[in-house]
Design goal:
Chain lengths: 276, 111
């Protein structure tokens, strides 16, 4: 592993569970690695790890983040290299220990060491606003707030934004923590019919910049079934394209936002209805 | 918003409206997370100068409404025992202040 790097630390967070944090961590991590960056994705969900499953690495976990913090294993022993992308690594969470084993000093030490070895450190936060979530965001340079266009998710995201502005190292130094909104599970037709909060609604309420809009898609479920990030498993599918665009925005590229729309034309729709 | 307009426009506008109201309140509350703690301490200090009470039996709650918020202070004060006749075991002091009163108190240096 080459030394002397200085990674950018991202936290993927949301407050609410089930909105797509782990899926997005895997998809963005793989996309960054695919674009040539050296990436480690770190699972902070101690006791309920799932990032290993999303990457298809669940049977290769030997040591984990807690082992490294406790000095049972060296960082190199715990890092798992992806089988498809040689630039992509996973630092798994412990499945057996409780989250109390995650100490502030331990996390600081591990992140500091990772910073010298990678271009990007992507921290997958657990749901909630407890210790695991605050430690996952603690050292972040930037946060990706994963939000579904739905009232409880937006409310929890608002709360998380408040925590990012008070509980992170950067905030405590009086610096600004960059925030990016990633809207997931977006149903274009529902938003068009006024059945789902629109992108504008969510943006107006949370008032942070938009990183991407990931449409609801069966490809996301299929990718998790086979243990491969959707950006690798179905790279040309609408959600994967949206993740790739978001990734390039993270890297600083200026790409126009593509709002997913219903791909079926009116004729198709009519035929579709007749067939159904 | 009546049912007819909800039907026509979908439920998203209602969701948006509810969120905007809710978050306006929650942001205030979290901006000053220890307001209730500060109020509690100072109110209790004043009361305890005149009567004795069990600090465990004090409830201070803030109810935030759309235009008016209510601050309720509920303190249980044990009565002194008297030799004759049954007595109510305690008296309750209750204060209620509407938002305007409370706010003028805070700006007058309580907070």
């Amino acid at each position: 592993m080459s030394e002397g790097k200085s990674a950018r630390v991202l936290v993927v967070t949301s407050g609410k569970g089930g909105v797509g944090k782990t899926t997005s961590t895997a998809a963005l991590g793989a996309a960054l690695a695919h674009l040539g960056e050296k990436v480690v994705v770190v699972d902070f969900d101690v006791g309920l790890r799932n990032l290993d499953l999303m990457l298809g690495a669940e049977r290769r976990v030997v040591f984990d983040l807690i082992n490294v913090i406790n000095g049972v294993a060296k960082l190199q022993q715990a890092l798992i290299r992806d089988k498809r992308l040689e630039n992509l690594y996973l630092l798994p969470a412990s499945q057996t220990r409780d989250k109390e084993a995650l100490t502030e000093e331990g996390v600081a030490k591990v992140i500091a060491e990772l910073r010298t070895k990678f271009d990007w450190i992507v921290c997958d936060s657990p749901a909630g606003i407890e210790r695991g979530a605050t430690l996952a965001m603690r050292h972040a340079d930037a946060a990706i707030i994963v939000t579904n266009p739905e009232v409880s998710s937006v409310r929890d995201s608002d709360r998380i934004i408040g925590l990012l502005d008070s509980k992170t190292e950067k905030a405590e130094r009086g610096e600004y923590v960059e925030k990016h909104l990633l809207i997931t599970r977006y149903h274009p037709w529902r938003a068009a019919r006024g059945e789902m909060l629109s992108i504008e609604d969510v943006l107006e309420i949370l008032s942070i910049p938009l990183l991407g809009i990931i449409p609801e898609s069966e490809e996301v479920l299929r990718a998790s079934n086979v243990g491969s990030p959707v950006t690798l498993n179905a790279a040309l599918s609408p959600p994967a394209r949206a993740y790739f665009e978001a990734t390039r925005r993270l890297k600083g590229e200026d790409i126009p936002m593509h709002v997913p729309n219903e791909s079926r034309g009116i004729l198709n729709k009519l035929f579709g209805r007749k067939a159904a | 918003m009546n049912l007819l307009s909800m039907f026509r426009r979908g439920s998203a506008p209602l969701a948006r409206e509810r969120l905007q109201i809710l978050l306006a309140h929650e942001r205030d509350a979290f901006d000053q997370p220890d307001l209730l703690g500060i109020l509690r301490e100072e109110i209790l200090a004043v009361i305890s100068r005149h009567v004795s009470f069990d600090p465990e039996k004090v409830q201070i709650t803030m109810d935030r409404g759309k235009t008016v918020s209510t601050l309720a202070v509920d303190i249980e004060i044990p009565n002194r025992r008297r030799s004759s006749g049954p007595m109510r075991p305690y008296t309750r002091l209750m204060f209620e202040a509407d938002a305007a009163t409370a706010r003028s108190q805070w700006t007058n240096g309580l907070v």
